[in-house]
Amino acid sequence: MTRVWQWNRPVTVREVLEDLQQERSIAYTTVMTVMDNLHQKGWVRREAEGRAYRYTAVSTRAAYSAALMNEAWSTSDNPAAALVAFFGMMSPEQREALRDAVRIVQHDDEQAAAQNGDQPAEKPAGQATPSAPPGGAPAAPEGETPERPVEPGR
């Protein structure tokens, strides 16, 4: 998947093979089998091109990572404790990125509520609502929402 995400375009088994062979010796059939397995699991889609297929990632690396985190969190017998332990492992920079992400999601939720005519949920006193994504966090283009994680099919 790393190679498919890096190329960020439809790729053939041959292209992935040649890329991998720069680092180690690997057989064409091995790469073909892995790509077919990824297709069977729903992580890539493929389109025939002559006698070969071109493979495209179904979701981004970020969406895939988010799905893995969500799966691990949701299968915990104590989700709150799992989150506290996870946050404790984060660097200060990662925690700041998390704060920025939460602000973006809250802002998106408030915009969606406003578009639907819903009343925004009450906030605790002193909690500000950002008018734009904070601190250089990536924002979606006007009129679009940031990409939401999509769990790959299994």
Overview of the molecule:
The chain is mostly helical and 154 residues long. It is 49% helix and 8% strand. It contains six helices and two strands. The protein has helices at residues 2-7, 13-20, 28-40, 61-74, 79-89, 92-115; strands spanning 44-49, 52-57. It has a two-stranded antiparallel ribbon with strand order 1-2. Strand 1 (44-49) and strand 2 (52-57) form a beta hairpin. The chain starts with a helix and ends in a 39-residue tail after the last helix. Mean pLDDT is 80; it is low at 123-154.
Summarize the SSE layout with pairings.
Layout: H1 2-7, H2 13-20, H3 28-40, E1 44-49, E2 52-57, H4 61-74, H5 79-89, H6 92-115
Antiparallel strand pairs: 1-2
Structural class: mainly alpha
Strand order of the largest sheet: 1-2
Give me the count of strands.
Answer: 2
Indicate the overall shape.
Answer: elongated
Number of helices: 6
Major sheet summary line:
2 strands, antiparallel
Cα(first) to Cα(last) distance is 14 Å
Tell me the strand percentage band. Answer: 5-15%
* Alpha-carbon Rg, integer: 20 Å
Could you estimate the helical fraction of the residues in percent? 40-55%
Order of helices and strands: HHHEEHHH
Low-confidence stretches: 123-154
Average predicted confidence as pLDDT: 80
